[in-house]
Amino acid sequence: MQTQFGLTHFWQQGDMVTHVTALILLFLSIMSWALIVGRFVRQLRINQAIERAPQAFWQARVLPEAMTAIEAADRTGLFSGLAHAGAQAAENYESSACLGAGVSLSESVTRSLRNQMLSAQANLEGGLTFLASVGSTAPFIGLFGTVWGIYHALVALSGSSSVVLDKVAGPVGEALIMTAAGLFVAIPAVLAYNALTRANRLVMAQLDGFAHDLHAFFATGTRRAAVKGKLAVSTASSAPAAVTRQAA
Q1: Dist CA 167 CA 93 (whole Å)
Q2: What's residue 10's pLDDT?
Q3: Cα dist from 239 to 223, 226, 247, whole Å
Q4: DSSP 129-180
Q5: C-alpha triplet 77, 79, 84: angle, nearest 5°
Q6: Is 144 exposed, middle or buried (0-12, 13-18, 19+ CB in 10 A)?
Q7: Which residue in 43, 106, 44, 49 sits closest to 80, CA to CA?
Q8: Which candidate, 28, 33, 27, 30, places its Cα nearest to that of 188?
Q9: In whole angstroms, how far apart are CA 142 and each of 20, 86, 95, 180, 233?
């Protein structure tokens, strides 16, 4: 490509509409790439948490140790947030005096885990709407620049009896560059959106399985049996005192 037909030439011969369109595409490209890089780095941390967090929780001997272990293994807070939500619901069940105290322990833990799952899903889907919007609108923004460049080419040819390359090359090159810029912005955004959406489905499946295990543990599993055992021991220890008072 000759120097007079380089990108600088196209930028200099363009008008305000062309410049604004190019700047919009540049802004969308920078924002989408920043979001893509940040989300994929975060996805690597989530993959590490999937491998380490549940195993660290279930290998602990007591619940406080399990909470500490899952916090250390989960840098994202997705799995540790579920564990804390289930533990908090189980601890507040007996002492709660609010409207939710009328439900069973299983329903209370289920409600808490479900709310935490919705919060985790909203956290995982952050930024995907922007990528989807960029992937669907960037080609049309580039197409608008293409149409505007062709319009400039037609204006340059008006009043001429023959086609002059110097008058047509600039607007046509501007149109082609706008088309390529729109595709350059849209294609990575669409690919990243599809990849992140699939990754989020896998993460939500892992969180759902871990939430079911936590529900079984806090509502009907070992912890529930331990609570019943403590209540039985406290009842048995208080029974002789009550008999002694009645005899007195």
Answers
A1: 79
A2: 65
A3: 24, 20, 13
A4: HHHHHHHHHHHHHHHHHHHHHHHHHHHHHTT-SS--HHHHHHHHHHHHHHHH
A5: 85
A6: middle
A7: 49
A8: 33
A9: 11, 50, 61, 7, 75
- Looking only at Cα atoms, what is the longest distance across the chain? 125
The answer to whether 146 and 178 are in contact (CB under 8 A) is yes
CB 41 within 8 A of CB 11: no
Coil, helix or strand at residue 127: coil
Residues 6 or more apart whose Cβ sits within 8 Å of residue 214: 82, 83, 86, 109, 113
| Token reading at 50 | 């999937």
Listing DSSP states for 219-234 in one string gives: IISHHHHHHHHHHHHH
pLDDT in tens, 144-174: 888 887 877 777 666 665 555 666 666 677 7
Q: What is the pLDDT of residues 54-99, one digit of tens each?
A: 999 999 888 889 999 999 999 898 999 999 998 888 887 766 555 5
Q: What is the torsion angle, in degrees rounded to the nearest 10, for the CA atoms of residue 87, residue 90, residue 95 and residue 99?
A: 110
Query: What are all long-range contacts of 202-206, with beta carbons under 8 Å and residues at least 24 apart?
Result: 203/46, 203/50, 203/78, 203/124, 204/117, 204/120, 204/121, 204/124, 206/50, 206/54
Q: Is the dihedral of CA 100, 102, 103, 109 positive or negative?
A: positive
The pTM for the full model equals: 0.74
pLDDT digits (tens, 9 = 90+) for 198-243: 999 999 999 999 999 999 888 875 554 444 444 343 444 444 444 3
CA dihedral sign of residues 177, 183, 189, 191: negative
CA–CA dist 124, 132 (Å, integer): 15
More confident residue, 90 or 37: 37
